[in-house]
Amino acid sequence: MKGKKVLVTATNYSRLCANAKQLLLDNGCEIIENPYGRPLTFGELKEVVGSVDGVIAGVDTWNEDVFKLAPQLKGIARFGVGVDNIDLEAARKYGIQVTNVPRGNANAVAELAVGLMIAVRRSIPLLDQSTKNGGWDRFVGSELAGGTVGLLGFGNIAQLTAKKLRGFDVELIAYDKYPDAAKAEEYGVKLTTFEQVLTDSDIVSMHLPSLNETYHIMNDGAFSMMKSSAVFINTARGAVVDEQALARALTSGAIAGAAIDVYEAEPVSADNPILRTRNLITTPHTAAETYETYERVSMVTAQALLDIFEGREPQHLLTPRA
Ligand SMILES: NC(=O)C1=CN([C@@H]2O[C@H](COP(=O)(O)OP(=O)(O)OC[C@H]3O[C@@H](n4cnc5c(N)ncnc54)[C@H](O)[C@@H]3O)[C@@H](O)[C@H]2O)C=CC1
Ligand SMILES: O=C(O)C(=O)COP(=O)(O)O
């Protein structure tokens, strides 16, 4: 087990908390950090994967083209939840075990989603900008209380978002293909259809994973079903939204505003027209970036790789043997 090389691509080395680094070092691992502060490109992965035994992965693309170049790679521990950037079938074919950390960053994402809801309904970034520029523009906003918040997806993050919103005096509705009725009851959420979430909500918050069947689920037709006074929040994945349709909906006034943390292509390019649409708040895929998340997720990912190296079944294995 000595001398295993662990590549940390999850944005930067500082993400792995001290205890997790120590755990890997105590077990004889060498840690290779990501010097770029962003996901690695194929070219950058190609340079390094040849000698790597395990990866603590961010949102870089892990597919057969990479696996072919990584003969020693035994495990990928995703530093988060979404694994749309990892080809699980190809991983299985190459004998690479893949894990993730369900709920590890859910609280951070739920808190940001609620924060963005208030920020967009009260135009907080515009108020800040205007006041700093010498203005005294007391824009009129809308309250959450008395309105309906619709959750698209009712998994771990949406459930925590609902739990937090209970104190805001809102109606909560949600759509999920495999709904958890007990959790819905616990958090006072009415389960309904995708269409009804769109038509009835004052705030639509996206929490679906990126899958073939959710690709561009928010398109022109979906935005046209929303109230013109409603806002859209996306802290899930860029691919579930047709970005150009969102830009059209904002520009035409079909919806009143949006806040997005995720993009169809990341990092989002400065000349992407979505960045210049009216009443849009943007953050750079930051929903999970909290010290608390890093503590929780670091230990789980480090332990998963050690388990894989030592032949034990890791927690949250996504590639069980057929
Ligand atoms: N912005 C960020 O930094 C972060 C983004 N995320 C994204 O948020 C997503 C959701 O995360 P969690 O709530 O933890 O996942 P989860 O797996 O707990 O919830 C996903 C829900 O979607 C439902 N679902 C799956 N396929 C569906 C379909 N075709 N139609 C309708 N419902 C469907 C599932 O039944 C499940 O309840 C992740 O997949 C990830 O992409 C997660 C963490 C951080
Ligand atoms: O957990 C997820 O799915 C996330 O999107 C968090 O991703 P990150 O590792 O913060 O780039």
From TrEMBL:
InterPro entries: D-2-hydroxyacid_DH, D-isomer_2_OHA_DH_cat_dom, D-isomer_DH_CS, D-isomer_DH_NAD-bd, NAD(P)-bd_dom_sf. GO terms for molecular function: phosphoglycerate dehydrogenase activity. It comes from the Bacteria. Keywords: NAD, Oxidoreductase. The keyword NAD applies. Its EC number is 1.1.1.95. Gene3D superfamilies: NAD(P)-binding Rossmann-like Domain (3.40.50.720). It holds the Pfam family 2-Hacid_dh_C. Residues 114-287 form the D-isomer specific 2-hydroxyacid dehydrogenase NAD-binding domain. Residues 14-317 form the D-isomer specific 2-hydroxyacid dehydrogenase catalytic domain. It is an enzyme of class 1 (oxidoreductase). Belongs to the D-isomer specific 2-hydroxyacid dehydrogenase family. PANTHER family: D-ISOMER SPECIFIC 2-HYDROXYACID DEHYDROGENASE FAMILY PROTEIN (AFU_ORTHOLOGUE AFUA_6G10090). This is D-3-phosphoglycerate dehydrogenase. It comes from Paenibacillus lactis.
